[in-house]
């Protein structure tokens, strides 16, 4: 198998011969070193000039051999990689009681943050111009990354792209089913496979059942009786995702998890636990009963 030089199109039998050819034929700047002294030497008219005796050498290899034999020196290539200053600092949370939590830490120490839920002041590394311009952006919610990497279903999650629910999506979800009947099926597809995160708990929704708010759109619409007004899944206020809420209701002797919008509610009928405790029990739950996941107004949806 031949190996071709992409500069001059010559072919070589091995990778080593090709690498030696590129080094001798296409390197135009080398660094000559003599103890603590370093001199940059450029190829001029096809040759390198020795900075000590003005001999002209045809390649970096012959120049290196000459420097080693005649001047007790050597030459090396000049790295094009820009050196960056070492300015890395840890991400630290100092709680009100003085305890510090390091975010760049082991999974066991990370669990302390999730369990303690400390209140305090985060200390973040100072952004540099290089880091801001060249580094890849990551998900702003570190909890999502934590659950995605530590759950028993990390391979499944890593094979999908998740984004946090936005107000523009919620606005579409809240469209009237009378005018847009196709949204009955679109909403189902949107939230089947979604991930809910609440502090140290997280679940992946397998399946939801959509129910319209009005009798005219769904015979099984949610009844809002006087005795169960506080259990309604109807959004009572605008949250970070607009008019949508995640609630736990008690119906038919079971704790049910619902996602409520102004036009429908979605009953979670199958889910997978993603948090660390999922390895102990109830990792897969089938049916409407959801007793371990307790949502709040701050529950995140992906």
UniProtKB/TrEMBL annotation:
<keyword id="KW-0863">Zinc-finger</keyword>
<protein>
    <recommendedName>
        <fullName>C2H2-type domain-containing protein</fullName>
    </recommendedName>
</protein>
<feature type="domain" description="C2H2-type">
    <location>
        <begin position="48"/>
        <end position="76"/>
    </location>
</feature>
<dbReference type="GO" id="GO:0008270">
    <property type="term" value="F:zinc ion binding"/>
</dbReference>
<keyword id="KW-0479">Metal-binding</keyword>
<dbReference type="InterPro" id="IPR013087">
    <property type="entry name" value="Znf_C2H2_type"/>
</dbReference>
<keyword id="KW-0862">Zinc</keyword>
